[in-house]
């Protein structure tokens, strides 16, 4: 099977699909397109006109990151989803929470004003607290289910990574209040499959993306860059 993953370079949802492929040691081609210049060939194969799209043998297009991750997990060994149906259902329920988690945890990246930024930061404790409670059942292992890495880990990794990047631009300091979540985030960042690019290179790309938006955090990125020169 030939796999082609179509992506924006800094898209966290594509990253989720790429993590699943890397966890399976699957060979795949990465094709990066520009968000503001989506080519006609892409629009023709992407029903929602969004990334990610996973092309199978240049004939079939799979779309939406959760569907792609589940397909990859079901068709390429070893299986990442828990074998126990109850545990699998719990994992799936927490996977369904990812869009809410992402919106609340990384909302500061889109805040236009100081007031908007402050409001966005205030929302972070709720999802962090929920995940801290969920992780109480993980035991001594570093991942969501304990020692064994799973699809739910792949889903959260891109957004915990982006929180850490935001924390590096302007100190937020929320994660230290949630020790289980912090340990989980550290374990995910340390895992090679999380990274589509060298970490320092990718962080710089993420910073440039935020600066290009002209949002509140842009001024802090520019000040840091000027100080380094």
Give your account of this protein's structure:
The structure is a single chain. It is globular and about 50 Å long. It folds into 2 domains: 3-75, Glutaredoxin; 85-221, Glutathione S-transferase Yfyf (Class Pi), Chain A, domain 2. With 229 residues, it is of the alpha+beta class. Helices cover 55% and strands 7% of the residues. The chain has a 4-stranded mixed beta sheet with strand order 2-1-3-4, with helices on one face. The longest helix is centred in the C-terminal third of the chain and has 19 residues, at 151-169.
Mean pLDDT: 95
Instruction: Report the CATH topology name of the largest domain.
Output: Glutathione S-transferase Yfyf (Class Pi), Chain A, domain 2
Q: Helical content, roughly? A: 40-55%
How far apart lie the N and C ends? 48 Å
Largest sheet geometry: 4 strands, mixed
Strand order of the largest sheet: 2-1-3-4
What number of domains?
2
**Strand/helix succession:** EHEHEEHHHHHHHHH
Strand content: 5-15%
Shape call: globular
Task: List the uncertain runs.
Answer: 223-229
Number of strands: 4
Number of helices, where a helix is a run of at least 4 consecutive DSSP H or I residues: 11
Backbone structural class: alpha+beta
């Amino acid at each position: 099977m030939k796999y082609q993953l179509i992506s924006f370079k800094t898209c966290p949802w594509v990253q989720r699909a790429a993590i699943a492929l890397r966890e399976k040691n699957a060979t795949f081609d990465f094709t990066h397109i520009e968000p503001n210049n989506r080519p006609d060939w892409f629009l023709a194969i992407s029903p929602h006109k969004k990334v990610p799209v996973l092309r199978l043998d240049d004939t079939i297009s799979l779309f939406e990151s959760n569907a792609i991750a589940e397909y990859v997990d079901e068709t390429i060994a070893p299986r990442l989803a828990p074998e126990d149906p109850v545990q699998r259902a719990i994992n799936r329920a927490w996977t369904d929470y990812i869009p809410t988690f992402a919106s609340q945890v990384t909302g500061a990246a889109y805040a236009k004003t100081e007031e908007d930024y402050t409001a966005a930061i205030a929302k972070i404790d709720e999802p962090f607290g929920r995940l801290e409670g969920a992780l109480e059942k993980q035991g001594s292992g570093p991942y969501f289910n304990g020692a064994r890495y799973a699809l739910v880990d792949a889903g959260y990794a891109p957004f915990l990574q982006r929180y850490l990047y935001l924390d590096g631009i302007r100190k937020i300091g929320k994660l230290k209040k949630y020790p289980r979540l912090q340990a989980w985030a550290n374990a995910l960042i340390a895992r090679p499959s999380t990274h589509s690019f060298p970490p320092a290179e990718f962080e710089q790309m993420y910073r440039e993306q935020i600066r290009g938006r002209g949002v509140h955090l842009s001024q802090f990125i520019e000040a840091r860059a000027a100080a380094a020169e």
